[in-house]
């Protein structure tokens, strides 16, 4: 792993998760937000991630999906042929997985008329960066179901809903169990290293494409904190509870660094690390962000476009761990990176995915 002013430790892979103690059991229990998720005579009653109650005849098929996280889970579960509409910005980027996929427009306001023309009566959406026109879709007779698959604290129960919606067959159960086993294996590996040297390190997570930082209320930041360190937003906005993304005056970043020291910076969105780094530096406008502690100490890490949220979050935990280890034990840092590469290859082989490991 080459150490420059920006260090590449990222895999072009989907990620968000938890570490160590947050093991997933794989047992099918209650559904997200409901006291009793039930399946009787083919009718499945449950509450989705927004607390909306549904009673649906299962299994469903010809389902539209917005954003990119839920479609990848459907690929993992062997449900790719059930995917119908995909949004232009994110979903259509994975069209090669979904032979029946067609374009339904923007992820925030998918075109219900196009869905109806194709006989697609159901749409699945994440809560964050999901669709916002549910009323218009419902008026067309489309069932809108929200699933929270990026938050590790509720991801398992939401995946159980996904499995049950498609009949929870033996094949689906087997693929789900395999996925959870591999997911937990990554966390177990990441948890097996000593990060005590960086327990109090301050870090920031920056979304280069939008110019947003993420707060300690975000699932992605919680993943990092389960490995080591603490988000600098605990200092600048300790009472934040719900805000995930925010714009920030670069002067605040510089002031925090002057007063406390910004030890690590994780930048993501673009596949090319130079693009991620360049966008961050340019965000300083007239301020020279190259003088930040994390830049001077070569603690800027670029993550691939699908790294921060999604199905292979466990790999992100290993890469964050490698970053924190680097200054204190380069051998173990490299070892953990190698294990991360191997896990990505295992996911690719097991589930027919094609994530690239060249940028590690």
Give the biggest beta sheet: 7 strands, mixed
Number of domains: 2
Helix % is 25-40%
The coarse overall form would be globular
Strand content: 15-25%
Secondary-structure content class: alpha/beta
The CATH topology name of the largest domain reads Rossmann fold
- State the CATH architecture of the largest domain: 3-Layer(aba) Sandwich
What's the order of the H and E elements? EEEEEHEEHEHEHHEEHEHEHEHHEHH
Mean pLDDT: 88
Based on CA atoms alone, the radius of gyration comes out at 21 Å
Report the total helices. 12
How many beta-strand elements?
15
Folded structure, characterized:
- There is one protein chain.
- 35% of the residues lie in helices and 16% in strands.
- It is of the alpha/beta class.
- The chain folds into two domains: 7-20 and 188-351, Rossmann fold (3-Layer(aba) Sandwich), CATH 3.40.50.1980; 38-167, Nitrogenase molybdenum iron protein domain (Rossmann fold, 3-Layer(aba) Sandwich), CATH 3.40.50.
- The strands form three sheets. Strands 1, 10, 11, 12, 13, 14 and 15 form a seven-stranded mixed sheet that branches. The chain has a five-stranded parallel sheet with strand order 7-6-5-8-9. A three-stranded antiparallel sheet has the order 2-3-4, covered by helices on one side.
- β5 (63-65), α1 (69-76) and β6 (83-86) form a beta-alpha-beta unit.
- α5 runs antiparallel to α12 and α11 runs antiparallel to α12.
- The longest helix is centred in the middle third of the chain and has 22 residues, at 170-191.
- It is globular, with a radius of gyration of 21 Å.
- The N and C termini lie close together (7 Å).
- The model is unreliable at 1-41 (pLDDT under 50).
């Amino acid at each position: 792993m080459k150490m420059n002013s920006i260090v590449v430790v990222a895999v072009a892979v989907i990620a968000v998760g938890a570490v160590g103690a947050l093991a997933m059991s794989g047992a099918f229990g209650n559904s997200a937000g409901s006291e009793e998720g039930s399946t009787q005579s083919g009718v499945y009653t449950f509450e989705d991630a927004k607390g909306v109650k549904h009673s649906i005849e299962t299994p469903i098929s010809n389902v539209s999906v917005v954003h990119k996280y839920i479609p990848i889970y459907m690929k993992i579960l062997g449900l790719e042929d059930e995917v119908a509409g995909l949004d232009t910005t994110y979903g259509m980027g994975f069209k090669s997985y979904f032979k029946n996929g067609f374009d339904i427009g923007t992820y925030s306001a998918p075109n219900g008329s196009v869905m109806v023309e194709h006989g697609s009566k159901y749409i699945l959406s994440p809560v964050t960066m999901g669709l916002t026109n549910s009323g218009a879709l419902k008026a067309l007779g489309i069932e809108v179901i929200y699933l929270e698959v990026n938050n590790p604290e509720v991801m398992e129960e939401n995946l159980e809903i996904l499995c049950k919606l498609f009949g929870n067959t033996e094949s689906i159960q087997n693929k789900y169990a395999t996925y959870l086993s591999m997911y937990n294996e990554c966390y177990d590996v990441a948890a097996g290293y000593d990060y005590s040297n960086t327990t109090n390190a301050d870090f920031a997570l920056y979304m280069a494409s939008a110019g947003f930082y993420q707060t300690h209320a975000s699932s992605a930041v919680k993943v990092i904190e389960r490995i080591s360190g603490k988000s600098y937003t605990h200092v600048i906005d300790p009472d934040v509870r719900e805000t995930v993304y925010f714009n920030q005056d670069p002067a605040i970043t510089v002031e925090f660094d002057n007063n406390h020291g910004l030890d690590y910076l994780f930048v993501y969105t673009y596949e090319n690390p130079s693009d991620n780094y360049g966008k961050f530096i340019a965000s300083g406008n007239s301020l020279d962000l190259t003088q930040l502690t994390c830049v001077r100490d070569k603690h800027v890490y670029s993550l691939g476009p699908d790294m921060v949220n999604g199905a292979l979050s466990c790999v992100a935990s290993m890469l964050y761990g490698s970053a924190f280890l680097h200054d204190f034990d380069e051998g173990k840092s490299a070892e953990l990176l190698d294990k991360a590469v191997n896990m990505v290859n295992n996911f690719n082989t097991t589930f027919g995915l094609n994530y690239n490991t060249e940028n590690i």
